Amino acid sequence: RRKSKKTIGAGTMKKNSLIFILGLLPLVPCSSHFGYGLLLTAELWLLFFAYLLSQQICELIYIKSEIGKRIFTCLFVMACTTVFSLTASLIFPVAELTLRFYIYVTAVSYILILCVAEYDEDYQSFSLIVFYTVFFLLFSLLREIMYFGSVSFLIPSGLFSLTIIPEAFLAFRFFGTNAGAFFLLAVSLWIYFSVRKARAISFTDFNN
Questions:
Q1: 81, 103 Cβ separation under 8 angstroms
Q2: Is 151 helix (H, G, I), strand (E, B) or coil?
Q3: Could you give the C-alpha distances from 157 to 77, 86, 103, in angstroms and in order?
Q4: What is the CA radius of gyration of the chain?
Q5: Residues 6+ apart with CB under 8 A from 46
Q6: In whole angstroms, what is the distance from residue 27 CA to residue 37 CA?
Q7: Is the distance from CB of 119 to CB of 45 less than 8 angstroms?
């Protein structure tokens, strides 16, 4: 039984690869700056733990029905999203105004659902949410460097940018646009799933 459950958990992302990709798509337009990526990944971790906390609260207040648990969890996560948005508006008002739509999109994205599913099925595994955090931050960093030649960080008045590559040397600016970002996303995920598949085949051959 334990082995079966572990197998299911390890395959969560593989079985839902299309959902995983669709979950990434709405966030591509807001990945143009590394600073934006930092804010949204911080929110993802907050909502991830909010979801886990809501499950514990349901047990404490004796909510037994699945429907009741789902309703409470949805309300709790959305409340945490609102608190995060209000807090961000006080600390980083310009960035929060720019990302407000995406802050609420993250709360209902498939990314959050898959991260929680992986945690529940794979014995409290953080592998998927860690992977998504690293992937999204690197993706945002790569886009900004390719298009602006800089790395940005959030400040109350907007973004503070550090120039890395002079504008005259930016030869791949297309990949910093939204169209180029979708292309980079497709290539990155193709490489990831190809490596994942190759490793799975190698592991199977080794066991045999």
A1: yes
A2: strand
A3: 28, 16, 19
A4: 19
A5: 80, 84
A6: 9
A7: no
Residue tagged 């945490």 (tokens)? 80
- C-beta of residue 27 within 8 angstroms of C-beta of residue 37: no
- Angle at the Cα of 142 (from 100 to 101), degrees rounded to 5? 10
Task: Give CA–CA dist 88/85, Å, rounded.
Answer: 5
User: How many residues are there in the chain?
Assistant: 208
Hey, what amino acid is at 112? L
In the structure encoding, which two tokens stand for residue 56, read together?
Answer: 């514990």
Residue 140: both structure tokens together:
């945002």
Element of type H or E holding 163: strand 158-163
Quick check: helix, strand or coil at residue 122?
coil
Q: Which residue has the higher pLDDT, 134 or 13?
A: 134
90-128 pLDDT, tens digit per residue, is 999 999 999 999 899 888 887 888 888 888 877 778 888
pTM of the model: 0.77
**Amino acid (one-letter) located at 128:** L
